Amino acid sequence: MNLVFHIVCVLLLYLLILAATRHAVRVGPWMWAACAAAGAAVFAAHPGATGGAAWLWVMPQVLAGVFLLASTLLFLQAARNPAPGLIAAYPVSLVLYTLGMFTDTGVLFWFLVPVAVALPLAQNRRTVLVRAVPFVLVSAAAAYLYNTWNVFGGGFNAVSFLARIGAYMQSLVVVWKIPPVHPAPIPGADTWAAIAGAASVAGLTLVMLWGMIRRLHPALSGVAAWLLAATASHALIEQPFLADAGPYLAYAALGLGAAVVGAVAAAPRGYKLSRISAAPMVLAALIVLAALGMATREHMFTFRSDSTFWAHLADDTGREPVVLFQYSRTQMQDGNYAAAATTLAEAFDRAEGQPGFQRTLAQTMLLLALKLYDEKPQHYALSKQFLVKSVNMNPRYPYTYSAMAGIYMDQEQRYLEAYIDMLIARELATDPAPMERGLAMVLQRAAGKGVTIDRAKGRARATKWLRDIGVFKKTDKLQPDPDQEQGQEQDPAPGAREAVPEPAAEQQ
Question: Where would I find the H helices in 173-274?
């Protein structure tokens, strides 16, 4: 279905190129149709755009492209020809625009595109501006809704916003490289990227306004508005991925620009087609299409599977933690557990200063250990290594300790270590009742095997570990065991507390 939507977008771009600039450059109909087809082919074959046809979860981006390209085409037709037969073009255009806004988050500034394309060709420019007001209101409503969903994130300033625009503008023209997920991170944005972003915004805005006011070539203002809307919308999102419609539609702008450049090269005098100037244009178009074809062939390997895609993307983005996290999940799905654990550890190290994300990585490491233990219990030693890494990542997550206690009890019959981990898990859990039952199970299992647990030693080690990780203060004590009364609880001797190492240190 994504491939069908992508083909529809390519056809809509072809029609939009013909409708927007058919009479702006005076070349033969066959030559202009060929230029429009070449521009649509650039969009169709660009690796950054073809990614939308290869992934199920990016369907919103290509579907939003269908809605917005169709909306822009109908808006242009209504502005150029106010005939009674086209009276329904404008309301249908508004409905399609609304659907596009609420299909994907990365197109909030798209209202600039239909205005910039239609204004130089409109018979009544005031009518075009008035008709653009509902489009602006729809974008504002979508922005308000997305803001309530925390799509834009926090800690976001103008410098990081401009840095993202600058970095993404640089990546748009590179056909052999997938654009970065995060062109510039929110904290400590690159100064030069921010300067490039500010220059890009200023330049595109001036070109767009100049083309609309002076009624120049409609594609001139259209391409500028197109790139400005796509990159600015994309840079707003807290964690933009390739599933964002902003990058997808930006490649359509490149196709539009390529078609116009080709037509201008084919008719340098504007009135007569020159075969001498058409030959270099055709040769350049063939070279561009050949380069795109080679890049697409290269990316067929990239998009062959989830693992190859995220591995390629991780290298392209400088090993971004969020990309490494997704890469580890695909490795986990493929059964490559050791590689997934290594990738998670790398992501944790690179996510320094992001405690919330680091907790997510620690929990994912726990899930990795449990998945391996469920599928291959004979490899419990490797699962235990993953649990130790999870404890080192987040020493206050109770379920990691309970999982470790299960391995100690079921596989190694080390009931003292299981007892210590369940004591720690009970103190860390927000709902201690399940951990209380697990602790009772450890005691019952040890009693059934005839094993005597040195509870004073175990409680000393658990107490020391809880103090080391900052959960216990010096005067805090553990709760009594399930088979003990409150009055029978005794604090272990100080000598034993200091003599026994903590669980995580012993495991390492």
Answer: 191-213, 218-236, 245-266
